[in-house]
Amino acid sequence: MRYLLCLTLFVSLTLSSFAQLKEAAPETVGASSERLKRIDNLLQEYIDKKWVGGATAIVVKDGKIIYYKALGLSDLDNKTAMKKDAIFRIASQTKAITSVAIMMLYEEGKLLLDDPVSRYIPSFANQKVLDKFNEADSSYTTVPAKRPVTIRDLLTHTSGIGYAQIGSKEATAIYAKNGIWGGIGVENGMILGDKIKVLGTLPLLHQPGEQWTYGLNSDILGYVIEVLSGMSLDVFFKTRIFEPLGMKDTYFYLPKEKYSRLVTLNTEDKNREVVTMKESLNISGKININYPAAPGTYYSGGGGLSSTALDYAIFMQMLVNNGEYNGKRILSPFAIRMMTTSQFDKLNWPDTKMGLGFSLYTDKSVARSPLSPGSFEWGGMFSSTYWIDPKEKLVAQLFLNQYPNSHGEIHDKFKVAVYQTLER
Fold this sequence. Notes:
The protein is of the alpha+beta class. The chain contains eleven helices and 19 strands. Helix content is 29%, strand content 18%. The strands form six sheets. Strands 1, 2, 3, 4, 15, 16, 17, 18 and 19 form a nine-stranded mixed β-sheet that branches. Helix 2 (33-48) runs antiparallel to helix 11.
């Protein structure tokens, strides 16, 4: 009888964690309702000090939503209250979705991770590596690459490809001269494949696999997905990931009926207080800040999506469920294991390793953070952050939509506020 009761409880807990996300009393999963109020206090403090304009935050434990709130304003000038279904520019949180899409094609036998990118995009053949650079006219000399850039290099940001607009001075200058953008707010009519083909002809910043350089790697992966699937990236995401998971508010370019839910992008004044961003964002070239609420043709796998707190929580829950959500399997548990296993450890942050699309917490890095070993995370340019803690079966994220943000410590304080609620 005891065995049957334990088995019934195990099956019940397993099924609930794989079912559709629903709100539940925190105490049912070992969290404290009273201590969850500290998240409210933290976010409200930053809003009251005019350090951020508004936020949505969500915390899921054991497949149950234990915190899901919106605070502050979604539009400072019009004093519009933030709502839980507000749509945010998630920028580099797009990368995780692109990485999952690549692993789907991997499991379908369409590619191997150590395949050369040139197998799918011929312009990446016979690549060169930057040797000397002349700032005066952006001219340069090169040396041959020791080996081809691979799909794995792109997933781990070790290809030697940098970022346009926000990267190094060399990458910014060379890419600008060749019409390469960072992927966010690009001009309507620009096509992903056209720019990626050009990118393949430009020099790498270092030899493949030897260093970690944040760059346009996920945009290249997005085009690989288009080549292998025969679909545009937006159609692949919609039909293969968003619709199966029930993610109803995640888009590259929003339908008109959802424009009003897009949060206004904020910036800072000279006193480091939050204000509405009035003009185009100027980072080595003007970026249309209202790009999600306009027609577009460029599907950036590195930063182009907009989403809601709930939609992205669904995606994260699929990952913590080892590739399955609400009866829909996106990836096998083995693919999730590969993605969350260290692939490269020479990062710019101590004791942090790189998986296939995420940074990973190690036994050493958790000495400085409440996250468990094996947790993985990333964030977005507009002050968003998320993490997944498989050991605690916990996912959490915070959306702010602000650039720049001099008060970025709010992300670490949010992590502390989440974990201090857990009582078992």
